[in-house]
């Protein structure tokens, strides 16, 4: 690493693919050779070529990323701080202005998750909001994820002592949780708030809630679990990389972390979905960019040139199969496996045949972010009940997507879910009020879920059942077999 | 009680939990010791500490409340009237301004219940409106209560002499009523108008309509029935208190009141629902309060710290059961029991096994105020028809929730209801035009119901039946048994 | 009749129930004694007491009304024309201003019935619009009348020679019509345009379309059919009056009119519906009236004190029955009887047992004006198909309500209707452009219906059938028997 | 052809039906005699009488039209260019202004078909937009065409290697296409952009996509296929003309064009639909026209006097039948026949009996432009599956209508379609960005379809099937037989 003091004017000259320098944390780096290897694409770096890229870079790269990817000699020296202001990127300063324009209200005045989302939208950058908010195509599945819960009615019972109510559950056969509500793996928490994924961890510890760490977290797993007790329950999300060695190295790191109790292999996004809200922020940046490199390069990129979501996706392997991937995984970790992203009873059934390596499955359409018009988890839950209820006995069934109210949580539990994940809500909580905002999210959902359970005359989560809900409207919508003519289908024997 | 003349400036000094004085009806009280015992919470008093609290206090406390709760020595003396204006609470004066801003139109120009609600919203304070209007969570059940009636079609018959039409019904096997429409127990009528619950009683007497007195009425039962003839039919609503002695004392008072013909035990709200409209008015007051005590106290209260609804709820016992509560009740009153708040055929069936102590059940989701996505009474009516129609022979079935039109009343009667309650409408009537406004509500509903009956070719209420309606849309939505696969369920034998 | 010249100032003094004079067509009448006998109520006259009432009176009373109702001596003399302007009613002059504010576009630029309604709304007085537009309660049935057609799909066929298309039909076994579209009896055409019902007749003659003359027409039957050829087909609508003699006299007049081919006995409005748009215009007039007589009279009238609809209704007998009324009718006319307003298969079945006196039935919910949430005619058509299809063989089935497009006409014909009535559309046509506007309505519907038939591959009306439509959405909504549990019901044997 | 130089002032005098001159491409023509023979009607020419009509004429007439229709002596000479500006039509200049008001954004920033339509709406003339956008009556079928796809859910599968995805298909048993997406025959591409249908051809060649040339293309077939390789796949759409010889001549020309691989006989519009958006632009022009000839001519034309759609329609024969038309066609071409516009299973079944002359059928409701409330192609697909699945084995089934997303394409393929047509989208693409805009449309749909296939775990188009979708919502809506009482119908044996 060089010790030279470098003038910003000098840095500014190196603003092309031929010679590309950037400033990060006060140091000047020559990233010309790294350009083609950047998982997020060349484009995004070239826009910051010759500039201080720290504000853009920092919230989406965990610490250690620089060291892992650049050779020591890439560091050319230290930027002369007096000259630095000349090369700050305009987009960055704009975002800053945006970010501080309102003061957040007291979290206690926010009564529900919509309130929190509304505050977060004002607090965080438009780019971060667009990334969190976005979903595939026309947001149909994202919307259905929630409205399907609204179409299920609850059946309150009377004259049952409801003095006590206990939300605790056990997962994976051994881990006691304070809530049946966990934080789904969602990327880039530091876009919302500097506390990042570690802040979510801190909020979870207060409720003894489970957290699944995103493969694309903006902090390292080690940083996230640093302050956790050994009993706190974390999962670690794995997107298998085409470059297997990378995944194996990560698994080795994860195996060493006590609080991480399982690996969550995500299957519902083998290719990136099309998230137009997210992509438009990228397009906007490109359009306003002086260098206009995209235009110059010609063409109309569709695949892999989109928003944050598509950048994060780079390197993920689309060739996973039941036969190859699970055995490979068994070689590299003894942790239980949780499969995330199942959306049909057929796949749930196949997964259940892989117990006990697979201990739980997560029914999820990736928050509506992968394929639009994919079914909500409630549909898949009811498909399993209809075609292969034995799945519930072989593996735990978790669900996520669309949870806005404690009543939604309770309905999922009635349908057979063991626990229920929330993804966007904690991120919006983080954006609205940092750690306290995430706590508020968990507090609201817990209190609402408790009220619902007490009005159903239920003291413990495991007492909840199908007799507590009227899900007839949804029953009339779920998959009815390929024949489609109202015939009840026997289970289609799956090919393994 | 002290006779001293006290200066307002002196009162103003006692504005904390350490020493808390308030002025009520011209007297100064030291309520420091009472603070922790206030059923509505410490908070609400501390906001008025050192001030004249009369306007806040008066419309929500029946007379005698002071005497019941404070020792005589708590009264320190009389406020010096010349100094009083200094300590009037700002919130109060604001509310006053609000309340008088429009002149109400003649009641005869209001053609339907929506007209009346719209006028009331202008006439009453925002806080009162929010309390009446609010319902649980997203108001889904409140809305469904009404729209479910819209989805039922009426089947008019022709060439039937419809010169005469008689709305009278008998309830509880003996009491003749002029209308099958009664006033549901709804709290805090004096928030709408000084005439309060006694005003509602006066309007009911004109139509020989039944009224159920709220457990949280803003007047005493004795005041409410004072001008009633012995034949006028009242019920008294009981929320059983954790401190049983309080409930027993009330029952003793009720047993002595001739016009009260039955006790209505409310079961649909063993814990308070989450009514955000109501809670937001509380939050708004707290936010604007100079003392900002809530902030100081820290934390983010969720349970029991909400709006008027949650204050009223304090002290209610959530541990009632079929086995314990009905026998206890039998010890303290010989009046017939009406159980309010049943929402499943299972509970209706169990209740019917408690005849003849239980003479009627009220199918109700508490106006959508307890649990959102709870079923409307129409669903429960149709569930009973489907699974256990014998219930109709053992007990009377009353319903409430969502009634906006006379056709709604007639549809409920066709489905088997004996009579139909309205809760918010009389309160809005009271707010819009006092006693005359309540009369207008009953007049509109009666006239509309009569027109509907005549167009159906029906002269008497008891002739109405399932052949007068097409409820097929609702049939396709009601509970279909826990299996959920379109199988007709035999009655689930309930556990007692 | 007096010949005196009377000064307006003198007339103006007689403005109370004690002495009530009005000016009509330049003559002064003392109507004090007539006041209690006015079918439309005392109120409406008192508002015009002491004034020139001609503009209010003229468009809603057929000629001869004065002579029939007042004795000759009631005419006191002639108003001094120079003094007349002093006593013109304010409301009238306002209405005039309103009426002339826009110039109507060429009828040929109006492409559909909504265009025509929009123009009419600008051309006619608000009072007239409110009377035509209004329907019962919340306009649910009015709206459903139309949307139910939208939920039926057409099934176009290909490779069928559709060069020719013929809309003609025969009704009542003998009368050939150019169109299967007729003008329903709708009152008060002169409110829309001076051409009135005779103008509608003139437009119908151009298309050889049938017209049913309203019992409450603003012209006499004689005036309406004056220019008709003997072959033009009219029906005359009968509301049986409590004072039977009046109805018998009218029938005697009708029997003498060659072009009137049948009597249409209306059964769907034995009591007036509640039409709030209409009632509000009345309320508005009363409120702005200086004399404010309603206020003075006290009370809050609900029944019979409403808008134009309720005034017209006065005197109608609600006691008609199958047993009494049809034989009475047989005594007073030999014309075939068409029963209007059947809304259930039960009543259609009973009616069919009265063939051949009854030759046709009209399925109608009175344009949604009688009972809100009454079923649309399409429901009743499909009920008959389901429970008692033999009705189609015994009597002709006509329908009205909700027709906006030629495709709606064709769908009704596919379902078994012989012809299809339109009520509001010709009135709006009249309002938009007089006779030419009514022609445009018939022209648009005919052209649209022809296009639809040709695309279905159908040349003649009688070829249309159930295989040309997909009405499955509606089938799932129609009445399913009183048991309601998806059981197919045998026909309920009706009581006669 | 005359060589005289003619002054514009002289031309301007000939502006009536008696003597009608127009300027086209700098030449003056006397079209007086041609007036009654103009397929688009006399009206439209008279509006431009005495003026330079080039801008109006050019984009809707393929080259050669003048020569085909006018005798040489009709050309009177050359317009004096210095005088020309005096007779430019106002409407034209307005349209020009409109057309250039915005600069189109880079096609790569348009993320979906709605983006493209929005840009096109700004770029093209209002008249062109109205012609493309319009559909029959209330646009119900147009809307349903799209929303029916939204009501079908996709069923993503996991753990399937989705590295590869291949969109290629073979049609008509031999032609390999790069995409299962083709360009439907849509008229008047030069209204959108000068590149016209040849531009669409150029875009298609890049993707090896199929294009069907409209019978009413604004360029000749020869021009359109000029730059195509012999392997590029085109169809040519035939509307059979009443004047058979015209159609036969066209077929002879088509038979000589190598790239045209089949004839697409359109059956879904034997009479023109009523497209009010389109008709209103015509009405607007007529109204603003000084000559106001329509008014003068009197009457209220309904049939054939409408917008562009109706002009194009002139001359089409409505008398086609299975028996006469197919044999006639066999005499004039050996190309395979594709029948377009089938909307019932009955017609699909009959068509399948005409294999092998008929090689494919296109299920289409003409983009909702012929008959409103006609069923979407998805309904017809599912009808065929239900009643006569053997059709899929006898002929290829193609569909069009309502495609907005790649997921829509995939759903149609799952239901059994061989390929999927888009009509408006390429025209809007052309309007938004010329050839590049059409490419963008195909690129977006391809990329979206590929993503969907990969998330379904499908590599090749032919693997897609009913088990990949949940179409239960649609199954409940499709035709259920004429009995209508939920009985499954055996196939109605069709009359041939």
From TrEMBL, chains A, B, C, D:
Ranges for domain Cytochrome b5 heme-binding: 3-80
Reactions catalysed according to its record: (S)-lactate + 2 Fe(III)-[cytochrome c] = 2 Fe(II)-[cytochrome c] + pyruvate + 2 H(+)
Localization of this protein: Mitochondrion intermembrane space
Residue ranges annotated for the FMN hydroxy acid dehydrogenase domain, each copy included: 105-474
Main location: mitochondrion
Any GO CC annotation of this UniProt entry: mitochondrial intermembrane space
Enzyme class: oxidoreductase
EC assignment: 1.1.2.3
Essential cofactor(s): heme b; FMN
Gene Ontology MF annotations: heme binding; L-lactate dehydrogenase (cytochrome) activity; metal ion binding
Biased composition (Basic and acidic residues): 273-282
Cited InterPro entries: Aldolase_TIM (IPR013785), Cyt_B5-like_heme/steroid-bd (IPR001199), Cyt_B5-like_heme/steroid_sf (IPR036400), Cyt_B5_heme-BS (IPR018506), FMN-dep_DH (IPR000262), FMN_HAD (IPR037396), L-MDH/L-LDH_FMN-bd (IPR037458)
Region of interest (Disordered), ranges: 273-307
Top-rank taxon: Eukaryota
Pfam families, per database record: Cyt-b5, FMN_dh
Keywords: Flavoprotein, FMN, Heme, Iron, Metal-binding, Mitochondrion, Oxidoreductase
Compositional bias ranges of the Polar residues kind: 284-297
UniProt family annotation: Belongs to the cytochrome b5 family. In the C-terminal section; belongs to the FMN-dependent alpha-hydroxy acid dehydrogenase family.
Quaternary context: Homotetramer.
Name assigned to this protein: L-lactate dehydrogenase (cytochrome)
Organism whose genome encodes this protein: Helicocarpus griseus UAMH5409
